[in-house]
Amino acid sequence: MHRRSIHPTMRVCQEWGSLLLNDKTQVVCESQECTEWLADFFSKTGFMPQAQNTVVRAFGMGTGAWAL
Q1: For residues 23, 27, 28 and 29, what is the CA-based torsion angle, rounded to 10 degrees?
Q2: In the chain, what is the straight-line distance between the N-terminal and C-terminal CA atoms, in Å?
């Protein structure tokens, strides 16, 4: 029996996730106070790694969402 793997497809999805959301990604607002609050919130909650996983899933499955 020969099994086919989806690993090459998963690699493409992971590459898109790392291209869109990496260490250089910044979320900014018009207000510097708001930007600092968002940066603090994202670092405390570990949002960026989870966001990257959501992007990978969205590319792989066709849909994805964030819920607060």
Answers
A1: -170
A2: 45
